[in-house]
Design a protein that fits this description.
The complex is a heterodimer of chains A (326) and B (275). Helices cover 39% and strands 19% of the residues of chain A. With 326 residues, chain A is α/β, with parallel strands linked by helices. Chain B is 40% helix and 12% strand. The longest helix of chain B has 19 residues. Chain B is globular, with a radius of gyration of 17 Å.
Amino acid sequence: MMMAAELRWLPDLINGLEKKSVREAYGNTLVSIGSDRNVVVLDADLSTSTHTSMFQKKYPDRFFNVGISENNMMGMAAGLSWTGKKVFVSSFAIFATGRAYDFVRQSVCYADSDVRIVATHAGLTVGEDGATHQMLEDIGLMSGLPRMRVLVPSDAAETEQIVRYVYENRGPFYVRLSREKVPVVHGNESFKFGRAETISDGDDVTIVATGILVMAAKIAASYLKKKGISARVLNMSTIKPLDAEGIVKAARETGRIITAEEHSIYNGLGSRVSEVVAERYPVPVRRLGVNDTFGESGKSWELMDKYGLNPAGIVNGVEELLKVKV
Amino acid sequence: MQDSVQSEDLEGIAKEVRKSIIRMTYEAKSGHPGGSLSATEILTYLYFRELRIDPSNPNWPDRDRFVLSKGHATPALYSVLAMRGFFDKSLLQGFRKINSLLQGHAVNHVPGVDITAGSLGQGLSNAVGLALAARIDNKKYRVFAMIGDGESDEGSIWEAALSAAHFKLSNLIVFLDRNMIQLDGFTEEILTLGDLEAKFRSFGWSAITIDGHSFNEIRNALEWAKVQQGPKMIVARTVKGKGVKFMENNPEYHGKPAPNEEKLNEALRDIEGMQ
């Protein structure tokens, strides 16, 4: 199959898509739930980047900037939650989950604390800051923790619904957001906790995508359709607990699965889906993600193209999958 | 609700706590007697004289909080809680055993235990969060904590120390169990901690140093704390293994119980004979 230039983000594809900031969606939603006196927000010197500063402006007495001390922030969040506070904690994904991992494990998860970690700047689309800030292992770190639920919204509208969901329900939660503005996937309310959303139906192959890659999956599917291949697209915005039934159904009905995520191929969506498929309904699987390397500096969408996290990467994977004899 | 315990003899209680620490760790064939024995007077005083708590209502929202950041000192904490009536003393026999309520390190599902601790350097941050919550809610409860000196190797202790001073947490009172020993040996040989009172003062705390085995000095320190502004650090000079001769100042007994019945009985006799 000829790989069309229209399947790469640059130079044109990404510019033709409507995009919205998931960080602003987070900040706006925090402000709208902030009238609840139990909502407390913590940030570690990144509030203007994570947009928790929007909450700070409206509710300064329930916002605490702890400085550059993510471990301390997680410990404080736990302490606050033990008195009945509904605590939101924000930083970049690299610091919230990597630097603070043991605090998240002990003070948040083991202590069963009502804490929601909403991290921004996950993945390659951090861009110019480079590998030190491009978190590609966080889904794995957080999914491995008992009690933790892991959520990755696909766009701004879904971010609002997910932030509202984690506000209305008891933590701990991990919500993974991007720095970059994300293409708009949804026009309406779509989120159901723990359920894959069927973006489009199909019979030949299933593309299970999360986050920014959901739009890539959508574009890949319409390209494949023109080539006579019917691809089902699932938006897996809840990574833990995973919608095992939805995956088994896709395996049974389409016979082949490709996963797509802005994360390492290890311990993320691809790994979790593979576990379910291997145990319950073995079919050929391909994982699209970052292949066990660190990222690098560059513009967000340049990097996404370089690392193959675009519709072309998905179409390539589907081609490979269709060649597998079953 | 405090009155009934105000008259109890603190020395007598402390002896019982010490014996319980020795028996629990002997029975479990594991655990941390040294740092539990060094913390005994402070925990005894807090639970029998100072804390506004109600054993019949352990989750009373207005209770004073106690954060045992050095979460391995559970033999002391659990013993004091049992004696104070938070749960039945028979549960102490299950310490560190399978299917038991009483885990090796502190977990907040135990009645009277406010926190989960064990991985060192986290409890002080938890305490800062608890103290901030009191401020948000305009509540009068106080937050007490105990950290270890070895634990103060952890950088997060100093992050929390900065925070407590920054947020001017006058409702936070912390004891530092300065027993001079950590798992691998003497604190000053492993990583020099130096003058911890001066260090905390330079971080913006009010700080004093006391004899952590003297009930009088503990009482006076808590009176002092009531009139200081901001977070309070009480550096308590203590003896690791206090009350059991072969354990005193002996790094070997940081995480090792009495090794046999003979030593067990020797330890119990030592405690009984304490002045």
